[in-house]
Design the sequence.
């Protein structure tokens, strides 16, 4: 498809600007000419061009509303439409962040209650809603760890992270000046306790643990892990990316976690929007509440208000209060599901993952063979060994079958990893159709490996050259580069 | 409503396949004493009509102002209908980050086009696919400068939005960097003397903003040399993106990074978020820039296509050595911005002019009131600070009429306790201004 710039024709317009109803003075008389620009190089298109352009683009995109999206660790569940509808109520969208508290009682109440709901669901003392995404929540959490030891007058320079962790964990830790120390995963897919014991010294600020981890496995030894970390005065951080596995089943706060970040755009079904906006609330235990970012919503009698007065706070991590509109959707979701509904979410998410695991077991290598939580991780190493077909070829072939592929090549400790998160909102028929496709592809790998290596065959473009894109970067359509 | 489609029969059949007798068996790995043996203490489930009603009620507890005079980092602009239509297409809003490029050409191309528009507007060569907001974009530019130059000092001018400086300080503290703040003069522009004096061989970045927090347009070019002579990077921010339609781009004036808030481009004020962090820079940062980048390439048939590129900068590949920890961004807000900008086209300049004219009118009319005085002399975009007898009282008077008044700058700036930061966009009509003036007379 042509770029919008390539469709541009001088003089076309898609939007009219109101006429000026106040006396005008030439801009050059108001602002030094040297500070003004000559021209803005934006596309010139008619409204119908614009609508067809973006409609055309949308048809070259794949969302949950189109089909099954078992992208591991991303929790691509169905996004209820009522959430979208209420999030667009003008009472929410048209409220300026500088609005006085008297104008904002509805929004403040929503934030106050959402914090309370999340605290109950995860067993934490309090939450901040300020972080804009999961990684931003992680960063905030690591900052809180830093502040905690600063206040205690302890110098701790390292943070432990299992080798299965999301890349954001070490990146967030590094952004706070800590050294990352990797902890091995044991044969059954949990933290290697012996190594943890050896590494957990008084120089270590804590352990960042994803639970269930990215193998989709619950940390069976969580009690021992917590004891080891706490025994040396460290803090136990939970990456809550996989929280869809345990809503109403168990609570990180009860398991001994001191800090947890969530991804509202995963567990609480606010849509991912092609990569964002999300929201990454961060929950902490009672000892750490003082360090949460400001401002915080408080209740004074029947009214809600802002409170900035927390001298030990790490400060702000974002302007204003966070991705409020995302909070509206998560709040709506929690109110729609209630306590029973949330529990059913996790029960069925876990059931679906185990069902897919059992159905695919004959076709793909299962490196950690136990009951999984909300996702299961296979390896394509059998296909690679027998047919020279890589996991990426399997993923690309799935596109021809109309499915979004699972997460691939992650976690890093599984060779040719295929990480499948089916989610609770998918029916048995959908799961069966996906498993049938995966089985068929395993068959094709034997009989017609070329078919996989040259896949996809039915998409708007064929397989794209990533290497070329990186070697000759073209990230912006500038005329003088053409 | 739990959105789970399974019938009891489905569940039974699946449990048989899995080889379990009850759903309880799925959670055998969780030590028994940590199993929650009660229901969560939350409000009971609501049906869709009930929940809709509840949410409508909550939204009605807010007061949407009849007239908005506040800016201060968030701006009330008209959003063309086409923007809402495009971002409501669920092919976009229910998709994940475009890792599978062949079925994500829509958003990848849209982001590539957005990157192009932003690079052209900011006078730079590289713009990423978005950051969380203007404040975190500025903080990341400061951290990236410090890491690149291996220096530990960041100089921020006090006329940069106070919340942006707050976020910069948080990020700098976490990294062990020092933040030194320098002042502004009577004109409202940065104090170049003081800024120069603060620069040294350990300075990684100088953070300025234009238009600055007071709405004053900075002469970016005038300090560029001093910053670069010390080997530091110049980071120029903005909070009001529509100003890019008329002001000389900071990239052309010598800024190394141009970062700011893109909310004005087609995103509602939304009580503070989601917003759009714009991050752009000179091409020397192409391989260091944080966040996602869409890039053009070709497919097997040599047709143009788009992918996420230069991913070795990013956390999922580089882990602790990544440029930034950012993963999720604000892609849908960037899409809205792209549609908005394509919709406005060359009219963006006219829109910016309107903002200037409206602000000028508001300012002149308010200055006719007794006790109201200008604070800064330099030209402004669509915001300005005035001294008035009692800012709190002024805002309360306006509030009583359903009008959102200005930002009381005294809470951030000692010495400006009688200052009110006011904003006018194209949404403000002449009759609104006259009404405001009559209330305050």
Sequence:
């Amino acid at each position: 498809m042509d770029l919008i710039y390539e469709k541009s024709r001088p003089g076309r317009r898609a939007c009219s600007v109101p006429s000026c109803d106040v006396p005008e003075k030439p801009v050059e008389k108001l602002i030094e000419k040297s500070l003004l620009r000559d021209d803005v190089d934006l596309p010139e298109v008619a409204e119908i061009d614009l609508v067809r352009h973006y409609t055309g683009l949308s048809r070259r995109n794949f969302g949950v509303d189109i089909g099954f999206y078992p992208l591991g660790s991303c929790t691509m569940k169905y996004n209820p439409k009522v959430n979208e509808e209420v999030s667009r109520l003008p009472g929410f969208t048209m409220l300026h962040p500088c609005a006085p508290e008297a104008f904002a009682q509805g929004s403040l109440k929503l934030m106050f209650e959402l914090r309370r709901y999340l605290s109950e669901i995860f067993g934490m003392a309090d939450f901040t809603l300020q972080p804009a995404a999961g990684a931003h929540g992680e960063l905030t959490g690591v900052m809180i760890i830093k502040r905690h030891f600063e206040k205690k007058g302890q110098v701790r320079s390292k943070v432990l992270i299992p080798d299965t962790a999301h890349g954001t964990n070490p990146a967030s830790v590094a952004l706070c000046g800590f050294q990352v120390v990797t902890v091995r995963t044991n044969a059954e897919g949990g933290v290697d306790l012996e190594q943890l014991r050896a590494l957990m010294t008084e120089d270590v600020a804590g352990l960042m643990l994803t639970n269930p981890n990215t193998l989709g496995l619950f940390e069976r030894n969580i009690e021992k892990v917590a004891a080891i970390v706490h025994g040396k005065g460290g803090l136990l951080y939970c990456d809550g990316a996989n929280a869809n596995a345990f809503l109403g089943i168990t609570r990180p706060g009860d398991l001994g976690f001191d800090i947890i970040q969530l991804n509202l755009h995963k567990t609480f079904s606010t849509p991912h929007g092609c990569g964002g906006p999300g929201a990454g609330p961060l929950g902490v235990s009672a000892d750490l509440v003082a360090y949460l970012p400001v401002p915080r919503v408080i209740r004074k009698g029947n009214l809600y208000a802002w409170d900035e007065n927390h001298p030990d706070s790490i400060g702000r991590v974002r302007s204003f209060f966070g991705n409020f509109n995302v909070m509206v959707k998560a709040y709506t979701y929690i109110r729609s599901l209630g306590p029973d509904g949330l529990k059913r979410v996790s029960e069925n998410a876990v059931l679906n993952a185990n069902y897919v695991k059992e159905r695919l077991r004959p076709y793909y290598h299962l490196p950690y063979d136990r009951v999984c939580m909300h996702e299961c991780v296979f390896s394509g190493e059998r296909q690679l060994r027998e047919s020279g077909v890589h996991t990426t070829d399997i993923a690309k072939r799935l596109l021809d079958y109309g499915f979004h592929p699972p997460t691939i090549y992650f976690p890093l400790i599984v060779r040719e990893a295929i990480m499948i998160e089916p989610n609770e909102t998918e029916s048995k028929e959908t799961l069966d159709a996906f498993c049938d496709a995966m089985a068929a592809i395993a068959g094709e790998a034997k009989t017609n490996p070329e078919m996989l290596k040259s896949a996809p065959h039915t998409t708007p473009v064929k397989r794209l050259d990533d290497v070329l894109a990186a070697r000759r970067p073209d990230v912006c359509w500038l005329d003088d580069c053409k | 409503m739990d959105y789970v489609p399974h019938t009891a029969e489905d569940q039974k059949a699946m449990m048989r396949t899995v080889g379990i007798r009850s759903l309880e068996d799925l959670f055998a790995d969780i030590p028994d004493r940590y199993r929650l043996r009660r229901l969560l203490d939350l409000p009971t489930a609501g049906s869709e009509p009930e929940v809709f009603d509840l949410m409508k009620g909550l939204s009605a507890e807010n007061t949407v102002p009849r007239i908005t005079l506040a800016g201060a980092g968030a701006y009330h602009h008209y959003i063309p209908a086409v923007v809402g239509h495009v971002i409501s297409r669920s092919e976009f809003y229910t998709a994940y980050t475009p890792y599978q490029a062949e079925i994500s050409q829509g958003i990848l191309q849209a982001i590539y086009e957005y990157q192009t528009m932003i690079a052209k507007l900011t006078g730079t060569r590289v713009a990423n696919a978005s950051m969380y907001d203007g404040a975190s974009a500025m903080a990341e530019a400061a951290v990236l400068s410090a890491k690149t130059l291996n220096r530990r000092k960041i100089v921020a001018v006090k006329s940069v939005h106070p919340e942006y400086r707050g976020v910069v300080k948080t990020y700098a503290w976490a990294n062990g960097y020092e933040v030194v703040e320098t002042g502004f003069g009577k004109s409202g522009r940065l104090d170049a003397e003081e800024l120069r004096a603060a620069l040294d061989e350990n300075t990684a970045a100088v953070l300025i903003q234009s238009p600055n927090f007071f709405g004053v347009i900075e002469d970016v070019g005038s300090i560029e040399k001093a910053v670069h002579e010390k080997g530091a990077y110049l980071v120029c921010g903005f909070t009001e993106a529509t100003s890019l339609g008329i002001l000389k781009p900071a990239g052309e004036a010598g800024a190394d990074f141009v970062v700011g808030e893109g909310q004005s481009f087609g995103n509602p004020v939304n009580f503070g978020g989601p917003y759009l962090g714009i991050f752009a820079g000179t091409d020397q940062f192409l391989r260091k820039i944080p966040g996602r980048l869409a890039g053009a390439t070709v497919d097997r048939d040599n047709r143009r296509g788009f992918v996420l590129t230069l991913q070795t900068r990013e956390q999922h590949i580089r882990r602790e050595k990544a440029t930034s920890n950012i993963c999720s961004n604000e892609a849908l807000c960037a899409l809205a911005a792209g549609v908005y900008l394509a919709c406005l086209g060359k009219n963006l300049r006219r829109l910016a002019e309107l903002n200037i004219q409206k602000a000028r009118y508001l300012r002149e009319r308010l200055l006719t009131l007794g006790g109201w005085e200008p604070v800064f002399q330099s030209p402004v975009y669509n915001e300005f600070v005035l001294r008035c007898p009692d800012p709190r009282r002024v805002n309360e008077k306006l509030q009583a009429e359903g009008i959102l008044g200005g930002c009381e700058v005294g809470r951030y700036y000692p010495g400006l306790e009688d200052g009110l930061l006011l904003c006018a966009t194209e949404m403000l009509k002449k009759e609104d201004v006259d009404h405001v003036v009559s209330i305050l007379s």
